[in-house]
Amino acid sequence: MSLAILQHRLAAAAHAEDSLQESWYALYVRSHFERAVEDCLKGKGYPAFSPHYQTIRKRLGRTKTLDLPLFPGYVFCCFNSHKRLPVLTTPGIVRVVGAGNVPEPVEISEIRSLQTVAESGRPVQPWPFLQKGQKIPFFTSAVYPLYIRGDRRAEDLRRRWFRR
Q1: What angle do CA 36, 107, 16 make, to 5 degrees?
Q2: How high does pLDDT run on average in the chain?
Q3: Can you tell me the distance from the alpha carbon of 104 to that of 111, in angstroms, rounded to the nearest whole number?
Q4: Tens digit of pLDDT for each residue in 76-112?
Q5: In the CATH scheme, what is the code of domain 21-163?
Q6: What are the structural domain ranges in the chain?
Q7: Judging by beta carbons within 10 Å of its beta carbon (0-12, 13-18, 19+), is residue 22 exposed, middle or buried?
Q8: All residues at 6 or more sequence positions from 24 whose CB lies less than 8 Å from its CB, including other chains
Q9: Which residue would you say has higher pLDDT here, 139 or 130?
């Protein structure tokens, strides 16, 4: 067997192994199904994440604390995009966010930033009227300043999180 054929087979095997790696994806879900979909995916063994925030609403002379999703209509899940049928058959899931039938993974740094914010215990809420490219300081620290930036995917995810 020639060296070129062996190198080609090794490269193909490495590519196939890379394509089997799990990535985080945004799942578009039915309205008000974020918590139920997250629980169901976790029950199936998939890491799922749907950040929530608390807000106080006044209704008929009383105040009520509500737990609302930070990204209404979306749940983040880590799975292999080539084996997505068990995820898509979960009740409440409409589709995987992406271009056409090709799911687009969410960068792991964005997921880590969201998880850091959710676990911090600090009060958060959606930022209204983000413009494309607008940077808003969210949490400042000497080590890890955290920002929100509106960009081209703002229609799908409403906001992107990143560290500077």
Answers
A1: 95
A2: 78
A3: 14
A4: 999 999 999 999 999 999 999 988 888 999 999 889 9
A5: 3.30.70.940
A6: 21-163
A7: middle
A8: 76, 77, 78, 105, 106, 108, 111
A9: 130
